[in-house]
């Protein structure tokens, strides 16, 4: 086994570096710049049952050391993802890919996951439970342990692929939600999704985002993400994928020490499209500097 | 798309809050007028997208307006400074549709991308008329430069302090074959409603990445969702669905 190899829910990864959903599209734009097969894998753009435009623009705002987005899950819908995006993706990416799924009802999640389950290119399903539950009064599935567990059970019934549940940090007790997902049969937990934030334009005295609020990501959130990865990895026995503000090889190692088996890189891809390549290249040297023989050994080593 | 380092050669004021920066670096990925570059500025998380005004060999010309902390930082850079730049971004103007007598319509900092376009159209033997609109005489820039290229130039100002009193749409010449426009959205809307000829427009949206990954700058068109940074910023008049 190589120094960078890790295992995520039974599927080996050449390295733990995974571009996060929503920051890497379906990979093509990045494949113009480097061979994306060097990645552990990547999580493709959040996919829903129906096509979505998402929220009105502007839906991006800058913040100190980060950004807000209120894109709102723009995607062509699961059928087009399968008929158009996956065949194109196959031409540039040969490894199992992580399929990121969102929904507005338990049935939505099950429908979308059942279709993606049949795709041999899909290695893992990463189920984002930060969306509002349209049948449950609009509260996010991810803010209530019982609704989170309900999604997990519904998805597990329709797929044999490993299911990672992507958690929202906008909760009081993230460990309780992670435990509920584990008990319901989740194969892994990924966290954190973005932190809810807001900016106001002083000239217009109006919110910068047309949606008023949006999700904060970027280096600003790294300590919060790290803390939550550590808390969740203490609370569950299934693998944890850490993300939130990861920018460097050092950040990857920090996340792994906190308990992450693999690490997603999000907003950094948007400002440095070579970020993941650079992180993978510099990992061996940074590991040497800190006396780390193999990454697999340091998971949860804090 | 290419990521590379450019060196600032010149950075000077052209008009009120408007600066011209010349930089040296690899321009091979810049293929069409109407494309843009995305500048990384130390201390700012997001890059700043700026349209390509002109390009000759390895020298890139950008004209930008200071509208916030990022562009203010940019305006303070001295020759010799270096910048991390993504080049070759976006889908530019289609020169093949110009016909014999293309019309260029620029409003304020929408004027710069029309400059390289004008140069390329003139090189193809077109008779180019540029109507350049500004708020007032103090805001006018590049009138002489467009004339020196060989364009017919009309300047309009909203307050009448220079050229024709009014907007570019108050000075639309007749008998033109195709239009290319860039400027504030109200101007573009008005151009679309007041022209009979076909045309292309360059749109602006707040961007995240500038290369198609984040979906931050999407818009609806008659042919589906398009990313301003990737399928745009130049779109056909006929495909645009105006919001609001």
Would you summarize the structure shown here?
The complex is a heterodimer of chains A (302) and B (244). Chain A is an alpha/beta fold.
Topology of helices and strands:
The complex is a heterodimer of chains A (302) and B (244).
Chain A: E1 6-8, E2 11-13, E3 17-19, H1 28-31, E4 60-63, E5 66-69, H2 78-92, E6 97-101, H3 106-117, E7 122-128, H4 145-158, E8 163-166, H5 174-183, E9 188-191, E10 195-198, E11 200-201, E12 206-207, E13 213-217, H6 222-235, E14 240-243, H7 249-257, E15 262-265, H8 268-271, H9 275-289
Parallel strand pairs in A: 3-15, 6-7, 7-8, 8-9, 9-14, 14-15
Antiparallel strand pairs in A: 1-2, 4-5, 5-13, 10-13, 11-12
Helix pairs in contact in A: 3-4, 4-5, 5-6, 6-7, 7-9
Chain B: E1 2-15, E2 18-24, E3 36-40, E4 48-56, E5 59-65, H1 69-75, E6 82-89, E7 102-107, H2 113-123, E8 129-134, H3 143-149, E9 152-157, E10 164-165, E11 178-182, H4 185-194, E12 199-202, E13 218-221, E14 224-227, E15 234-236
Parallel strand pairs in B: 7-8, 7-11, 8-9, 9-10, 11-12
Antiparallel strand pairs in B: 1-2, 1-6, 2-5, 3-4, 3-6, 4-5, 12-15, 13-14
Fold and architecture overview:
The complex is a heterodimer of chains A (302) and B (244). With 302 residues, chain A is an alpha/beta fold. Chain A has nine helices and 15 strands. A seven-stranded parallel β-sheet of chain A has the order 3-15-14-9-8-7-6, with helices on one face. Chain A is globular and about 50 Å long. Chain A starts with 5 loop residues before the first strand and ends in a 13-residue tail after the last helix. The mean pLDDT of chain A is 96. With 244 residues, chain B is mostly beta strands. Chain B folds into two domains: 2-89, Beta Barrel (Elongation Factor Tu (Ef-tu), domain 3); 95-201, Rossmann fold, CATH 3.40.50. In chain B, 14% of the residues lie in helices and 37% in strands. Chain B is built from four helices and 15 strands. Chain B has helices at residues 69-75, 113-123, 143-149, 185-194; strands spanning 2-15, 18-24, 36-40, 48-56, 59-65, 82-89, 102-107, 129-134, 152-157, 164-165, 178-182, 199-202, 218-221, 224-227, 234-236. The longest helix of chain B is centred in the middle third of the chain and has 11 residues, at 113-123. Chain B starts with a strand and ends in an 8-residue tail after the last strand. The mean pLDDT of chain B is 96. The interface between A and B is medium-sized, with 35 and 28 residues.
């Amino acid at each position: 086994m190589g120094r960078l190899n890790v295992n995520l829910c039974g599927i080996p990864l050449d390295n733990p570096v995974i571009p996060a959903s929503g920051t890497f599209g379906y990979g093509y734009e990045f494949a113009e710049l480097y061979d994306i097969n060097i990645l552990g894998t990547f999580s493709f753009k959040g996919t829903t049952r129906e096509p979505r435009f998402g929220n009105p623009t502007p839906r991006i705002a800058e913040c100190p050391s980060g950004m807000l987005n209120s894109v709102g899950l723009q995607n062509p819908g699961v059928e087009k993802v399968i008929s158009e995006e996956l065949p194109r993706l196959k031409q540039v990416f040969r490894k199992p890919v992580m399929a990121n799924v969102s929904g507005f009802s338990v049935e939505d999640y099950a429908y979308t996951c059942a279709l993606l389950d049949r795709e041999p290119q899909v290695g893992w399903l990463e189920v984002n439970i930060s969306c509002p539950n349209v049948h449950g009064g609009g509260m996010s599935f991810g803010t209530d342990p019982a609704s989170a567990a309900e999604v997990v059970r519904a998805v597990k019934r329709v797929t044999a692929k490993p299911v990672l549940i992507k958690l929202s940090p906008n909760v009081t007790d993230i460990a309780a939600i992670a435990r509920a997902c584990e008990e319901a049969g989740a194969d892994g937990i990924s966290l954190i999704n973005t932190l809810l934030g807001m900016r106001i334009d002083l000239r217009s005295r109006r919110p910068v985002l047309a949606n008023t609020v949006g999700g904060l990501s970027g280096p600003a959130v790294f300590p919060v993400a790290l803390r939550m990865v550590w808390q969740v990895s203490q609370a569950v026995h299934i693998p944890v994928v850490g993300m939130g503000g990861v920018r460097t090889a050092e950040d990857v190692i920090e996340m792994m020490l906190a308990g992450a088996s693999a690490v997603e890189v999000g907003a950094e891809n948007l400002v440095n499209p070579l970020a993941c390549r650079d992180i993978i290249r510099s990992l061996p040297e940074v590991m040497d500097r800190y006396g780390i023989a193999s990454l697999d050994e340091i998971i949860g080593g804090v | 798309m290419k990521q590379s380092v450019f060196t600032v050669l010149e950075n000077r004021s052209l008009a009120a809050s408007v600066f011209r920066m010349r930089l040296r670096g690899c321009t091979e990925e810049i293929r069409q007028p109407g494309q843009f570059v995305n500048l990384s500025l130390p201390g700012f998380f997001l890059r700043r997208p700026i349209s390509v005004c002109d390009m000759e060999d390895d020298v890139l010309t950008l004209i930008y307006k200071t509208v916030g902390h990022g562009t203010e930082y940019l305006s303070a850079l001295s020759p010799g400074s270096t910048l991390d730049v993504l080049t070759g971004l976006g889908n530019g103007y289609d020169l093949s549709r110009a016909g014999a007598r293309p019309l260029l319509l620029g409003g304020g900092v929408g004027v710069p991308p029309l400059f390289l376009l004008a140069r390329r159209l003139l090189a193809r033997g077109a008779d180019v008329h540029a109507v350049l609109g500004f708020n007032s005489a103090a805001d006018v820039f590049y009138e002489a430069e467009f004339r020196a290229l060989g364009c017919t130039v009309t300047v309009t100002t909203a307050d009448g302090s220079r050229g024709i009193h009014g907007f570019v749409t108050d000075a639309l010449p007749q008998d033109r074959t195709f239009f290319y426009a860039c400027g504030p959205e109200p101007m573009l809307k008005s151009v679309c409603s007041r022209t009979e000829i076909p045309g292309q427009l360059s749109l602006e949206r707040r961007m995240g990445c500038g290369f198609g990954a984040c979906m931050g700058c999407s818009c609806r068109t008659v042919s589906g969702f398009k990313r301003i940074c990737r399928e745009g910023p130049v779109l056909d008049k006929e495909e645009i669905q105006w919001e609001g």
